[in-house]
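User: Design a sequence. Structure:
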């Protein structure tokens, strides 16, 4: 017997309409790409989303068509986030920091017919557009006063395009399983792979974000996603904020610690999200301000994910701002939030040291997401906090297959997706990433976690960034090489670093050598680019 409840579909248009009706005067603040601070509201954004839908309909964009964006976190990008899926089309958010070949591959593979781009990216696209197979229209996300001279063909100005359109659109009643968004993995191995989110997966993921033991977004929050809207949907915050009625603060193209600080202070941000390197930039900037008491700022939560949050970073942020760090884990294939670290009530009496040992873990699965760890033969391993194996995940916002790769089976027989991460799971469900399976160092039949070593090394006061890679070793197969970027004006020695590690790690984990470089290579999503480090040190030999 079926239940007798209404079967309203979970659609992005319902988020748009909810925000328009119930959070209409809630502010959306942007550090504009053209300069200055721009202020609008969900009510205005909903009207402009309708105008976009009319303009795109005139350009023959239909249900199931793909529209790409190459854009920062701005109100205009938010308008696309709401308009494009609501009208039944698919928004493909492209990461502008990718190599030109990857960018072209993605735009062609997605079948994008239209490309929206911010002013910043016009020169980049001028050099590439003749390789785009299907894009028939370029729309520059600015007003007439800021339109650049360009060699791009078929160019429109965003504001001109929507100016005369009606501000109401009859959003179609779609099936909630229809495609809504398309993001590509960064392609560290092979070509980028497309993950095709549905309306349903995005809505359920957003609901989860609004739960208290997740990020807990609510109407009292002022949220600043520093993580870009081109990196796994800014971790779901644009939809979740519109759903919750949180004030949204968007940092635009200005990825400096100074901009983040000013926005936190002037807009009263309570929660902000980003990869660890972002917070290093913020801490570096506030370090230049002298004696100011930052604990009086309203910021309550820093959400850190994308790569491991080192204890020194967690401690620094919490002390400096009197806020909590929520460590989170996820990936493009998981929408992205898989786990979030919130302390359990039973840890209330723990010492600071014991609490930190929990905070560095990547967190617990949110309701809806299931995790298991398995060995190489797929056998489940114990949830004892010690055994480690391949991390597998399933849930309604986890990918089932990659876009246009229907024959590639990415799930095990129980429907779990292999994350490519190696982790432990403890009795309470806290998951700890040991390493990406390709980064783990295999030393004499044992594994060394590059993440654990990096976490300890970044605590050395003269160290800005640390990375560990495995170097071939005649006896042990691989041994760790520690690569350090010192803080400005500091020049620690190998002995300083090794002395610091001494007693904090198992003796046999001690790196066989320490080298110093000026700048850490980063991926398009701001993580340490280990592939480049391996290339840089491919001829490195340990002195025996
Ligand atoms: P990419 O970084 O390649 O663009 P993703 O954002 O999908 O693509 O990266 C997902 C991967 O990032 C995870 O599989 C994991 O290895 C790593 N990661 C994400 N969050 C964390 C975290 N909190 N700690 C350690 N690693 C993390």
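Assistant: Done.
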């Amino acid at each position: 017997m079926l239940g007798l409840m209404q079967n309203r579909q979970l659609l992005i248009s319902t988020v748009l309409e909810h925000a328009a009706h119930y959070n209409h005067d809630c502010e959306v603040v942007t550090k504009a790409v053209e300069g200055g601070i721009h202020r609008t509201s969900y009510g205005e954004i909903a009207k402009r989303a309708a105008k976009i839908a009319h303009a795109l309909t005139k350009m023959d964009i239909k249900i199931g068509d793909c529209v790409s964006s190459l854009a920062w976190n701005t109100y205009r990008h938010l308008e696309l986030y709401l308009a494009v899926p609501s009208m039944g089309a698919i928004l493909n958010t492209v990461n502008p920091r990718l190599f030109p070949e990857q960018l072209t591959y993605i735009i062609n593979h997605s079948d994008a017919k239209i490309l929206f781009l911010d002013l910043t990216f016009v020169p980049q696209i001028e050099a590439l557009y003749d390789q785009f197979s299907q894009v028939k229209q370029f729309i520059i996300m600015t007003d007439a006063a800021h339109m650049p001279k360009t060699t791009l063909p078929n160019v429109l100005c965003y504001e001109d395009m929507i100016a005369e359109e009606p501000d109401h659109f009859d959003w179609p009643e779609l099936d909630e399983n229809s495609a809504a968004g398309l993001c590509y993995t960064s392609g560290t191995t092979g070509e980028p792979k497309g993950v095709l989110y549905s309306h349903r997966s995005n809505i359920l993921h957003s609901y989860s974000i609004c739960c208290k033991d997740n990020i807990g977004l609510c109407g009292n929050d002022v949220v600043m996603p520093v993580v870009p809207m081109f990196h796994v949907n800014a971790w779901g915050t644009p939809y979740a904020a519109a759903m919750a009625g949180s004030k949204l603060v968007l940092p635009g193209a200005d990825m400096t610690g100074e901009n983040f600080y000013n926005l936190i202070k002037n807009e009263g941000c309570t929660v902000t999200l980003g990869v660890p390197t972002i917070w290093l930039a913020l801490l570096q900037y506030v370090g230049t301000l002298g004696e100011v008491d930052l604990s009086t700022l309203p910021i309550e939560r820093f959400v850190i994910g994308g790569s491991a949050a080192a204890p020194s970073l967690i401690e620094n942020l919490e002390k400096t701002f009197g806020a909590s760090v929520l460590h989170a884990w996820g990936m493009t294939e998981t929408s992205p939030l898989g786990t979030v670290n919130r302390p359990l009530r039973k840890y209330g009496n723990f010492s600071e040291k014991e609490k930190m040992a929990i905070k560095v873990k990547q967190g617990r699965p949110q309701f809806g997401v299931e995790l298991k760890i398995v060995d190489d033969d797929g056998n489940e391993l114990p949830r004892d906090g010690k055994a480690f194996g391949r991390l597998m995940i399933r849930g309604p916002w986890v990918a089932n297959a990659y876009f246009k790769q229907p024959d590639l089976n990415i799930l095990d027989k129980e429907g779990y997706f292999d994350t490519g991460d190696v982790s432990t799971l403890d009795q309470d469900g806290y998951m700890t990433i040991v390493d990406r399976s390709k980064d783990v160092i295999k030393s004499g039949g044992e594994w060394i976690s590059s993440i654990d070593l990096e976490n300890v090394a970044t605590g050395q006061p003269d160290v800005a960034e640390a990375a560990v890679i495995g170097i071939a070793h005649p006896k042990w197969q691989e041994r760790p090489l520690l690569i350090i970027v010192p803080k400005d004006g500091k020049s620690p020695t190998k002995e300083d670093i090794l002395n610091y590690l001494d007693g904090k790690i198992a003796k046999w984990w001690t790196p066989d050598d320490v080298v110093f470089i000026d700048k850490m290579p980063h991926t398009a999503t701001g993580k340490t680019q280990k592939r480049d480090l391996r290339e840089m040190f491919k001829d490195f030999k340990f002195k025996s």
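The pocket of adenosine-5'-diphosphate is lined by residues 185-186, 188, 232, 305-308, 327-332, 362, 419-421, 433, 436, 523, 525, 527 (CB under 6 Å). The CA atoms of residues 273 and 300 lie 12 Å apart.
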